[in-house]
Amino acid sequence: MFQLEGWQGCKQAPGQRPRIEAKVSRAEKPDQRWPTDLGRIWGDKDGRLNLALVIDCSTRPLHGWHLSRTGKASTASAALDQALITRYGMLGQVCEPFLLRSNNGLVVTSRNYMRLVRSYGLKQEFITPPCLPARQVKG
User: Fold this and answer.
1) pTM of the shown model
2) Most buried residue, 19, 72, 73, 85, by most Cβ within 10 Å?
C-alpha cells in the first residue's frame, strides 16, 4: 500500500535482546518466574489509564500493580516495587534471584526499569511477540 501510494514509513529496527522459546510459562515453585505486563483500561473520568501487573507463575497471586495516566517506566517500576514489598516485606536485593518475564516493550526495556531490575539482583527474559493471524480481505 505504501509503495503504491508513494508514502514513506519508518521501519523499526529489530531489537538485539535475547528471546526465549515460545512455550507455556510454568513455574514449579513460587518465586521462580514472575511475568509482568502493562495494559490499558478505560476509566470513566480519566479516559485511558495504564495498568502494570506483576504475578507469580506458580501460584498465580497478584503481587503488585500500579495504575497511572502515563505508561512510563515509572509505572512498571512502581508495580515491581509493590510486588517485592508484598512478597518479601522490604525492598533491596532478593535472597534467591528469579526471572521477570515480559514482552520486549519500551517500558520494560527502558534504562531505568532495567537498572532497577539489576539492582534487585533479578534476571529478565523476553517473550517472542505473538503472531497475529492475517485478516482475510473480501473482494
Assistant:
1) 0.71
2) 73
Helix, strand, coil % in the chain, rounded to nearest 5:
20, 25, 55
Place of cell 501487573: 53
**Helix H or strand E encompassing 79:** helix 73-88
Location of C-alpha cell 515509572? 74
Side chain identity, residue 68: S
Distance CA(41)–CA(132), nearest Å, equals 21
pLDDT, tens digit (0-9, with 9 covering 90-100), for 46-96? 788 999 999 988 888 889 999 999 888 899 999 999 998 888 887 777 778
* CA distance linking residue 107 with residue 100, whole number of Å: 13
Digit-coded pLDDT (tens) for 105-119 = 888 888 999 998 888
Cell numbers 501510494 label which residue? 5
Residue (of 91, 102, 95) closest to 33 by Cα position: 102
Pairing relation of β-strands 99-102 and 123-126? parallel
Count the residues in the chain.
139
Q: How far apart are CA 53 and CA 19, in angstroms?
A: 21
